[in-house]
Amino acid sequence: MSEEVLINITPQETRVAVVENGVLQEVHVERARFQGIVGNIYKGKVVRILPGMQAAFVDIGMERTAFLHAADMWRRHENGFNGFGSFEHPQPQITELLRNGQDLLVQVLKDPLGGKGARLTSQTTIPARYLVYLPEGDHIGISRKIDQSDERERLAQSVAQLVESEGVQGGFIIRTAADLSTEEEIRLDISFLKRVWQKVHEKAKTASAPALIHEDLTLAMRTMRDLVSENVEKVRIDSRETYEKAVKFARDLIPQVVDRIEYYPGERPIFDLYSVEDEIQRALSNKVHLKSGGYLIIDQTEAMTTVDVNTGGYIGRKTLEETLFKTNLEAAQAIARQLCLRNIGGIIIIDFIDMEDPEHRRQVMRSLDKALARDRIKTFVTEMSTLGLVEITRKRTRESLERVLCEPCPVCGGRGFQKTPLTVCYEIFREILREARQFDANGFLVLASQVVVDMLLDEEAASLADLQEFVGKPIQLQVEAMYHQEEHDVVLL
Questions:
Q1: 39, 189, 260, 286: least CB-packed within 10 angstroms?
Q2: Number of other CB atoms surrounding residue 269 within 10 Å
Q3: Do residues 227 and 127 make contact, with C-beta atoms less than 8 angstroms apart?
Q4: How many structural domains is the chain composed of?
């Protein structure tokens, strides 16, 4: 499998594309004006405690106060690098843990999404290439994706010995990237994490809340840390300054990939190399075409994302069941890629085409599970229901690609639909009646878009004449070129 990472840098934004075998798999965008804050550590001040929600609002110096739940304050035992665990003891009340005006060291789990503030945790973690440091932890966890028992045991013993020899207090999680790593590479990570935490600890003691204590790496450097693995053949960067920083970063933490980092000085934009720009545009559409002729419809809402699978123009060659099976099988692969490409998180409902054969259902689910296993973001998949529905939860830490690049339509308000000209005509009739009963006007002037005025003069001309006779006042029409289809005004003359 050939994998390349393309990094496009401009003064306004940084964009990263992960390409496998010439096909775009992931896109990450970070803008200078709206830089993500996930991973940042703040010294915050508790401004409001909500006992009924077992949570508190914390001022970290941003426009909106951030949200801290009691569950994110109590230490847990972790079973591997999966973000889930069980409480050591019964969870105490939020009022036992915090008080108003209290200063608190917190870390951002989720960026502000929509109208919500950032989600916080007091369980600070600092990631490096192979390890994640938990200053308040007391155990060593291992990524479940490292499935060889011998390798898991080797890594656990190696980290435990190095932690003791380095005199580091706290716990560690061994990341998937640590698979087959050397003891020296692990030691470098521990030493790096120790230095970072010392700086955080010292700054936190002297800073006045609210204050930023530690800022996570930029998108380009996070890419080097988290996305550049042994499978990556090339990392191409179109900024000389960022290229030099990336090389320096790699020499310190991942020296084995230094020779794979390239500066791209070409006149052709770097994202045009694999038609990345075109793929991004397609990722903003709610319709995804499959090679067979079928298609997906992807609709994102505040509550969840729905994916509908359709056969489209695919008519198959054998039986109907075989046609539906092949469409669903192809859709399973495409859905996994689209979730990653569009960075869709939260609850996702997939409506596969109904199949009667239980073996076909099992194969589609196996294909979906296998495709999602390659996702860097944690996902959980339920079994297919009798209606062909599959529920997926995908961890959401940042806005989706659509929310980053787009905004709701000002005409329809994000509904995706607009009122028909006929509906607007009837609204105008009702408004004229309302005004005629309330005010003694000499007449009415209707301001509306061209398509609405045309309908009033054509299909609805008789209705307009009847209304004019009923109210006993003249009704004039005027086209407003700047009005959209739903917009209209009734002016008293």
A1: 286
A2: 12
A3: no
A4: 4
The answer, yes or no, to whether residue 330 has pLDDT greater than 60, is: yes
268 & 389 share domain: no
CA 391-393-398 angle, to 5 degrees, is 145
DSSP-assigned letters across all residues of 67-93: EEEGGGTS-EEESSSSS-EEESSPPPP
Claim to verify: residue 17 and residue 52 sit in the same structural domain: no
Dist. CA 155–CA 157, nearest whole Å: 5
Residue range 46-67: mean pLDDT, rounded? 90
Give the pLDDT score at 42. Answer: 94
pLDDT score of 413 more than 80: no
- Length, in residues, of the chain: 493
Q: Does some domain include residue 73?
A: yes
Rounded to 5 degrees, φ, ψ at 165 are -70, -30
- Can you give the CATH number for the domain in which 15 is found? 3.30.420.60
Boundary residue ending a domain (404, 434, 466): 404
Closest to 384 measured CA to CA, from 401, 370, 399, 369: 369
Look up the domain containing 129 and give its range: 41-214
Could you read off the pLDDT of 419-454 as tens digits, one per residue? 999 999 999 999 999 999 988 889 999 999 999 999
Greatest CA separation found in the chain? 96
CATH code of the domain containing 174: 2.40.50.140
Q: Are residues 77 and 57 in the same domain?
A: yes
Query: How many other C-beta atoms can be found within 10 angstroms of the C-beta atom of residue 93?
Result: 11
Pairing of strands 232-237, 3-9: parallel
Residue 82 confidence (pLDDT) above 70? no
Torsion angle (degrees, nearest 10) of CA 143, 146, 152, 155:
-70
Q: Which helix (H) or strand (E) holds 57?
A: strand 55-59
Looking at residues 327-340, what average pLDDT do you find?
Answer: 94
Q: Is the pTM of this model over 0.85?
A: no
Q: Is residue 475 part of a domain?
A: yes
Say if residue 208 is in the same domain as residue 227. no
**Over 60: is that where the pLDDT of 83 sits?**
no
**Which pairs from 435-443 meet CB under 8 Å and 24+ separation?**
435/490, 435/492, 436/471, 436/473, 439/492, 441/473, 441/492, 441/493, 442/473, 442/492, 442/493, 443/473, 443/474, 443/475, 443/476, 443/492, 443/493
